[in-house]
Amino acid sequence: MSHSAEDTDPGLPAGDDGETRRDFLTLATAALGVGGAALAVWPLIDSMNPAADTLALSTIEVDVKGVKPGQRITVKWRGKPVFIDHRTPEQIEKAQADDAAGLPDPQADKDRVKKPEWLVLVGVCTHLGCVPLGQKPSQPRGEFGGWFCPCHGSHYDFSGRIRKGPAPTNLEVPQYQFLNETTLRIG
Amino acid sequence: MTAPSEPTRAAPTEGSPGMIGKAKDWIDYRMPIFSFMEHELHEYPTPKNLNYWWNFGSLAGIILVIMIATGIVLAMNYTPHIDHAFNSVERIMRDVNYGWLIRYIHMNGASMFFLVVYIHIFRGLYFGSYKPPRELLWWLGIVILLLMMMTAFMGYVLPWGQMSFWGATVITNLFSAIPWVGDAIVTWLWGGFAVDNPTLQRFFSLHYLLPFVIVGVVVLHLWALHVHGSNNPLGIDRKSEKDSIPFHPYYTIKDLYGLGVFLIFYMAIVFFAPNALGEPDNYIPANPLVTPAHIVPEWYLLPFYAILRSITFDIWFIEAKLLGVIAMFASIFILFLLPWLDFSKVRSARFRPIYKQLFWVFLVDCILLGLVGAKAPNDKVFPGIDNFEYVQLGQITTAYYFFHFLILMPLLAKFEPTRPLPESISEPVLGNRAEAGE
Ligand code: HEM
Ligand code: FES
C-alpha cells in the first residue's frame, strides 16, 4: 500500500506548517503516558525508604550510673554506635576554650551538650561513615584528644568537633534527654 | 574468500539434506536464527591481522557466562539476611558439595572479569578503537564497565563480613556529599539509618538482576561491533576481500586457544591461591560498631578509590568530600568524551610515535593510582623521605590522569607528526614493512 501525503488523513486538514490535530493527539498521549508512568513508579521507589517497623525502633534508654569521669561507653541506636563520654573537668574546660579556635564547623561546646559532663554523639564519622577510634583508652584519639577516624584521617576534639582531616562537619549530636540523673533516652 | 581450504557452504535456506537439515530449514523459514548465526559467527568477515589483544572481548563474554552460572547455584544456598548471610556462605564453603569450588570460581571470577575487561579497554586505547565509526560501541563498553562495578560492589556485600559491611558503608556514604538531598538519598539507598538488613536484601536482589542487564548491553555492544566490524592493529579500514578472513574457523579457534591459556591461569588461582586477591577481614562477621583499621576495596576499584581520597582540599565553596566524589565519577565519565578529546584521524598508536610513549606513561599512572588506593594516605612512599606521603603521590597521579585526557590527547591530535599509514592491511608499504607485519 502506498499513501501520498494528501490521502493519509482526509479528515484532518493540515495547518500552514504541516501540523495536524493528530500530531497534537500523539503528543498529548505521550505526555500523559510519561506522566502516568512516573506516578506509577513512585510506590516502587518509596518502598525502598525506611519501613514503618524500621522507623519504630527509634528510641533506647541507657543507664549511665556506672560510667566514671574520663570513661566512654558505646551503645547501639538505629544500627549505629552512639558514644557517651563522661568528661572530666579538664576536658570540659579545654572544649570550651576551643570555642574560639578556628573551627571548620563552628559551634560552641555548650550548644552540643545538655550537661557539660555528659557528651553524647553519634559515633559515625561525618566523612564517609566509619566509626572513629578513641572509645577505649588504648585507642588513638588524634591530635585534639577526642576521636580519630582511621579511614581517611579525621581528628575530632573533646567536644566531638572536626578539627583536621577530610570530614566536613562535627560529629552529630543525637536527639536525647535525661529521664533522671543517670538515665538517658536517645531518640 | 581468501582461504582456499574454506568450502563454500550452502546457506541452510537453500534446502539442506537430512533430518536435522530439514528441521533447521523449517525453523529458519519461520525465524531465521540459523542464517543469523551463519552470518554473524561464521561468514562474518574479520580483519586478518588481529593479534592476541583481540582475544579479550570473547574472554570477557565467557567469564560473564561463568559468573551467571556459578551465581545462580550459589543463590540456591545463600541466605540474604544479616543474621544468616555470613553463616550461609560458610556453609557453602564447608558443607555444600563443591560449594567451595563454586564460590572460589565466582569470587575470583570477579577479579578475572575486571582483569580481562581492563586489558580489553587498554587495547582499545592503544589501537584507537574508540574513534569513528566505533564511538557508540565504545560508549556501550563503558556502560558495561559501570554495571560491572555496581554488580561486583553489591556482590562483595553479600557474604556480610567486615569488609562487606564497611565497604558498603563508605561507598553508600559517598552520596551524602550531594548538596541538600544527599542524606535523603543515602537513607533511601539503605532503607534505614545505617547499612542493615534492608540494604543487604536489596543488594542481593540487584546483584541477581544486574548481570542480566549486562547481558543485554553486551548484545547491543556486539550489534554495534558487527555493523563496522573489528578495528585491527594497523587501525586502517578493510579495503578489499583480501583484508578479511571469515570469523569461523579462524577466530573461533584462536579464541578457544586463548580461552585454554586463560583458564589455566584462572584455575591456578582458584585452586592454589583462592584468597590471595581477597581481604582476610572479610572472614570476620560484620560488626557495625567496629571499623577495621584499614578499609580497602577490591583491587579492581583501587585506582578510583585513590582518586576519591586524593582531593583533600576545598575549591571555592565546594567541599573536599564532594570534589572527591566528583573526581572519582569524572575519571570514568571522561572516557565517554575520549572520541572527541582525541580527534586524531590516525587510530593505531603504531603510527603515532608520541602517543605510543604516552600510552605507557598513562598505564603506569593507573597502576600507581592502584598502589595509592591500597595504602594508608599518610604512609611514607619512600622510607627515608618524610614529607612525601601517599596522599601526595595520589594527588600527582590523579592530576596526571586528567592531564592525559584533557590536555595531552587534544594537543597530540592537533600537533603530533604521525607516520604514513599502509595502503591496506594486505600490502606492506615501502619503508614500513616491519610495521605492517608486526
Ligand atoms: C557480572 C557478573 C557478576 C559479578 C562481577 C559478581 C561478583 C560477585 C562478587 C565480587 C561476590 C563476592 C564474593 C565473595 O567475596 O564472597 C559475589 C557474591 C555472590 N554472587 Fe555474584 N557476581 C556476578 C553474577 C552473579 C549472578 C548472576 C548471581 C545469581 C544470583 C550471583 C550470585 C551471588 C551470590 C549468591 C553471592 C554470595 C555468595 C558469596 O559471597 O560467594 N552473582 N558476586
Ligand atoms: S570516614 Fe572518617 S575520615 Fe573518612
Overview of the structural elements:
The complex is a heterodimer of chains A (187) and B (438). Chain A is of the alpha+beta class and 187 residues long. Chain A has two domains: 1-49; 55-186, Rieske Iron-sulfur Protein. Helix content of chain A is 21%, strand content 21%. Chain A contains three helices and nine strands, in the order H-H-E-E-E-H-E-E-E-E-E-E. Chain A has helices spanning 21-46, 52-56, 89-97, and strands at residues 60-63, 72-77, 80-86, 118-122, 147-149, 154-156, 162-164, 176-180, 183-186. In chain A, the strands form three sheets. In chain A, strands 1-9-8 form a three-stranded antiparallel sheet, with no helix packed on it. Chain A has a three-stranded antiparallel sheet with strand order 2-3-4, with no helix packed on it. A three-stranded antiparallel sheet of chain A has the order 5-6-7, with no helix packed on it. In chain A, a hairpin with a 4-residue loop joins strand 5 and strand 6 (154-156). Chain A is elongated, with a radius of gyration of 29 Å. The N and C termini of chain A lie far apart (72 Å). Residues 1-10 and 429-438 of chain B have low confidence and may be disordered. In chain B, helix 3 (56-75) packs antiparallel against helix 9, helix 5 (99-127) packs antiparallel against helix 6 (135-157) and helix 12 runs parallel beside helix 14. Chain B has 15 helices and two strands. Chain B is globular. A two-stranded antiparallel ribbon of chain B has the order 1-2. Chain B folds into two domains: 51-234 and 245-295, Cytochrome Bc1 Complex, Chain C (Up-down Bundle), CATH 1.20.810; 298-438, no CATH class. The longest helix of chain B has 32 residues, at 197-228. Chain B starts with 17 loop residues before the first helix and ends with a helix. Chain A binds chain B through residues 45, 48-51, 54, 74, 76, 78-81, 123-124, 127-131, 150-153, 166-168, and chain B through 166, 169-170, 172-174, 176, 187-196, 198, 202, 288-291, 293-295, 309, 312, 319-321, 324, 377-378. The complex binds protoporphyrin IX containing FE (HEM) and FE2/S2 (inorganic) cluster. The site of protoporphyrin IX containing FE has 25 residues of chain B, from helix 3, helix 5, helix 6 and helix 9.
